[in-house]
Design goal:
Order of helices and strands: EHEHEHEEHEEEEHHEHHHHHHHH
Number of helices: 14
Number of strands: 10
Structural class: alpha/beta
CATH architecture of the largest domain: Alpha-Beta Complex
Strand content: 15-25%
CATH superfamily of the largest domain: Spore Coat Polysaccharide Biosynthesis Protein SpsA, Chain A
Shape: globular
Helix content: 25-40%
């Protein structure tokens, strides 16, 4: 039996799939098997590609119907016979030592069920070439794995782990299968809130994240605003924050470019957390009001998001309540100011205050 089962999910990416496959076959840890999930039954490209690769570790799974991103990713988290499993998206690729170092990380830490590595950003150019970004997702020096316990300030309205650079023990993967009603823009954040903490980050960039010119993620201001508000409001409801933690979060958002405090105001208003909102400065309120006047319908939708998207709210609220109760049972009482606020987006990210 192989040590790792890889799930490679592809959908209409004929120009990118060969790169992902090549990075898998170049791994220094060779004890793996891979299911290639083609989510388009009308596309014969993946079958023809694999037919030209003489590698018995690769198995093509053709969809009989298009099942979409949630069900596809759920399939990648179904328990497997191999001790470890991981997900490789067709637009991303791994460094040769990714599997070896990630397996070694979890082998050395039997108390951890999931780890992920840092990723380097690459940008797709109009001519189809790729430009390497000197930044990584995490601005960290090399060193031992960083351990994250629930809760962390970065999880206020975001996720910290990365789908395309994670390794999970197969015995734990089943709890990461989520209901099909979960919106696509809440998928990664929801899965992280289903995990058993702690989880570990390997600082070395062992994977590559493709910032493609076309993306499945919504770029709609209102959709992003709703997503961040749901996450932030549920976090405020269940996670006790110290005054220092609140101040650190507001300071970080003010320092981002563009300034990103409107999402904090939305979460505070929806949850009616006046102690949290007292950290907003006059400039934060002016930017918030300017955005609301530019998009009054969207601003109104965001402030009513708990009623409009009741299932999504109850889903997230329940997940965050359970994770926080588990943390309290282990001794957690109040979230302090967190110094590990060094996750970097590839560019414009989340709810844009100045758009």
């Amino acid at each position: 039996m192989a040590r790792v089962r890889v799930y490679l999910i592809t959908f209409h990416r004929p120009q990118l799939l060969p790169r992902a496959l090549a990075s898998l076959r170049a791994q220094t840890l060779t004890d793996w098997v891979c299911d290639v999930h083609n989510d388009d039954p009308t596309d014969d490209g993946p079958r023809r590609l694999l037919a030209g690769i003489d590698d018995p570790r690769l198995r093509l799974i053709d969809a009989t119907r298009k099942i979409g991103v949630i069900e596809s990713f759920n399939g990648a988290h179904e328990p497997a016979a191999e001790p470890y499993q991981t997900l490789l998206e067709d637009d991303n690729w791994w460094e040769p030592e990714f599997l070896a170092k990630m397996v070694a990380t979890l082998d050395a830490r039997p108390e951890l069920e999931l780890a992920w590595s840092n990723l380097r950003y690459w940008h797709e150019e109009p001519d189809g070439s790729w430009r390497r970004d000197e930044r990584c997702v995490w601005n960290l020096r090399a060193g031992p794995p960083r351990i994250f316990r629930w809760p962390n300030l970065l999880q206020f309205d975001d996720s910290i782990y990365s789908n395309g650079a994670m390794l999970v023990r197969s015995r734990a993967a089943g709890r990461l299968v989520m209901p099909l009603q979960v919106p696509r823009d809440l998928m990664e954040q929801s899965r992280e809130r289903m995990m058993d903490f702690p989880i570990a980050l390997v600082p070395e960039p062992l994977a590559n994240f493709a910032v493609t010119r076309q993306t499945m993620r919504s770029t709609n201001y209102t959709v992003w605003g709703e997503t961040q508000t749901l996450l932030g409001a549920a976090f405020l409801r269940h996670v006790p924050l110290s005054r220092a933690a609140m101040a650190a979060l507001w300071a970080r958002r003010r320092a981002s470019r563009p300034r990103a405090t409107s999402s904090l105001i939305n979460a505070g208003l929806v949850q009616r957390n006046w102690a949290f909102l007292r950290h907003a400065q006059l400039t934060d309120w002016l930017i918030f009001l300017r955005g609301a006047l530019r998009r009054p319908a969207g601003a109104w939708r965001i402030l009513r998001v708990k009623r409009r998207r009741r299932w999504d709210w109850e889903w997230l609220d329940g997940l965050i309540a359970r994770r926080t109760a588990e943390a309290c049972a282990r001794g957690f009482r109040e979230l302090p100011a967190d110094s590990l606020l060094d996750k970097q987006a590839p560019g414009r990210h989340g709810l844009e205050d100045t758009a």
